[in-house]
Amino acid sequence: MDRVGAGGVLGTFALQYGKAMGINCIAIDAGEDKAKLCKELGAVAFIDYKTSPNIAADLRATIPDGLEAHAALLLATHEEPFQQAYKYVRPYGTVVCVGMPGQALLEAPVFDTVYQPSTIMLQ
């Protein structure tokens, strides 16, 4: 499972739950301090969104079968991850949006949603 906003309060809580449940969590956040914290809390990999040229490709590279994540838990406080999540969740995967920014839009190209359908849950 991919976790966006991994180094914050909710993210670190989710990583610990994921580890306890046996889920392979891939954390997405920014900075060496967040990378260290996320790995200490159980993330099997960390992707720095500020330095990654292609988050989806970097995420696939961390998954043994080379596919996308089964699910994404979005805890970010800005809109961009909500626009990108469908790119790194495999077909019929699940995107769970927690705490969306107030005026954010959730958009995805029609072709991509047909080619790679997924479930989007808003919490």
From TrEMBL:
GO terms for cellular component: cytoplasm. Residues 10-117 form the Alcohol dehydrogenase-like C-terminal domain. It comes from the Eukaryota. The keyword NAD applies. The keyword 4Fe-4S does not apply. SUPFAM superfamilies: NAD(P)-binding Rossmann-fold domains. Keywords: Metal-binding, NAD, Oxidoreductase, Zinc. Coiled coil: none annotated. GO terms for molecular function: alcohol dehydrogenase (NAD+) activity; metal ion binding. Its cofactor is Zn(2+). Belongs to the zinc-containing alcohol dehydrogenase family. This is Alcohol dehydrogenase-like C-terminal domain-containing protein. It comes from Clonostachys chloroleuca.
